Task: structure prediction
Amino acid sequence: MNKTKQLFAGLILLALSLESAYADYTLNLMKGVTKVSNDVYDLHMLILWICIFIGVGVFGTMFYSIYHHRKSKGHKAAQFHENTTVEIIWTIIPTLILVGMAIPATKTLLELEDVQNSDMSIKVTGWQWKWEYEYLDNGIHFFSSLDEASNKARQVGSGIDPRTVPHYLLNVDKPLVIPTKKKIRFVFTAADVLHSWWVPDLGWKKDAIPGFINEAWTSVEQAGTYRGQCTELCGKDHGFMPIVVIAMDQPDYDAWVKKSLDDAKKGADLSAQSHAQLMEEGAEVYAKNCSTCHLPDGKGVPGAFPAISGSAIAMGDINAQAKFIINGKAAMPAFGKMLKADELAQVITYTRNALGNNVGDEIQPDAIQALLPSKSAPKETAKEIAPKTGTAEQIPVADKTKEELNALGKAVYASNCASCHQAEGQGMPPMFPALTGSALVKGDINAQIDLILKGKGMMPAFGHSLSATDFAAVVTFTRNNLGNSVNDLIQPSAIQKLQAELPAEANDDDD
Ligand code: HEC
Ligand code: HEC
Ligand SMILES: [Cu+2]
Result:
């Protein structure tokens, strides 16, 4: 008896201490901050109460019968077999209950999957070990990685108590920002391995699969910060690629969009830097982007991630190393897309002169910029972009040869189209059609131009965002490359005329 009391007291104490240690953890599902997450919660409660009702009813009757009709009271079991009425009843009632539960469940599922009529789309790509976000409507594009403080504290032997780090492993350098009260459609994919995007407050999670597109949507009512994680299991560092979503009211969101677009225009700082500066900044770029695989001391993980210390590449020709890091190779990500020229110069200089290496040279941001795939093309020719009013005078554009158009088009394609239609034009059917063999690309050139000028569904309108020359180049490129050989071309001057006829850029702020 005493033993039982002690056990009970112990259990209660344990429950109390757990309760206080994990004060955030409650017994039930969380309600979340969207209509769908609340519907999921309500569905869960409804089904739970149905189960409790059935459980209490069935077990209650059973226990009552067993107790009150027991043998010691003189009861005798009835002996009957195959009672058709009973069998029909116990088939029909559960069927009705199941159908009754399936109706609200299907309703919620359909609502969860209905990505139509969204106000904006965001493409989410999982990488080892960070998230990439592309706002398909306004072109904002960035990578979101584990924040510095968590990253330092998580290193083996860091000596930092994780409890002193705010939002340990749940904080990022650049959060995903979304407007409140808007239907946001997400398309998920991955660049290397499986990942899984989960923010509990939104009420769902989605797998991000290489070469495959998954969809989901959300609409957040309340401005606020909502945190989540990659919930993929297999792989080394999924626990270190958290997700932070900040929902802002429309005016704040618009201000954020403007600032992000302005910042993106600034691009890399190409001014020359001293060796000491390159090294100092390079150490930080390395800690943030490279140390997860190559380890903080550069020793790597034999068999998976080669050591930087003593690496033939890090100690060999500096331009070859720069190209290697820009383009990546197998599991080594292509950093040309992720880091700016100055950051690349810093980290390359750092790997050559630290982590046990001592080559004694350096590379400057402008030298890196020259190696990067041309993203600056649209900027140089920005003057040519059709005036927004569609009436103002235009600067005439020069005709180009087919070779020139193809060469320029290749770069324009890489920076504007490949993220959806893929580098070789194979697309990601069914969401992003292949351009290789596309009837539209091989058909009437005017129909193709019209689609790219005006966009359609998830295909952005490029009429206002590409210069006439870049536009003509990319159209010519898609018709004569990527496995297509129509053998025609369009001149920038023809595009310029069409751009002038476009209505002024739609202003999709509805304030
Ligand atoms: C996701 C893991 C990962 C990350 C992050 C990563 N690398 Fe690598 N790295 C690799 C792999 C895998 C290889 C081997 C590639 C091969 O040769 O197939 C490699 C190879 C290298 C090499 C050549 C080593 C040799 O001698 O073969 C260098 C130099 C290098 N990485 C530098 C960097 C730098 C600088 C960064 C950060 C900007 C970085 N890596 C980030 C995985 C990674
Ligand atoms: C955000 C993703 C995205 C980007 C970036 C993008 N597209 Fe598209 N594209 C689409 C989608 C989605 C469709 C299908 C539109 C539809 O039919 O509803 C499409 C359709 C097309 C088609 C018609 C293909 C067919 O056979 O139906 C062409 C041609 C095309 N895009 C060219 C381009 C070019 C050139 C660029 C770069 C200047 C580009 N796209 C950039 C998403 C994209
Ligand atoms: Cu992951």
Summary: The chain has 18 helices and ten strands. Residues 126, 195, 230, 232, 238, 241 surround copper (II) ion (ligand 3) (CB under 6 Å). Strands lie at 120-127, 130-135, 141-144, 176-179, 184-190, 195-199, 204-208, 214-218, 224-230, 243-248.
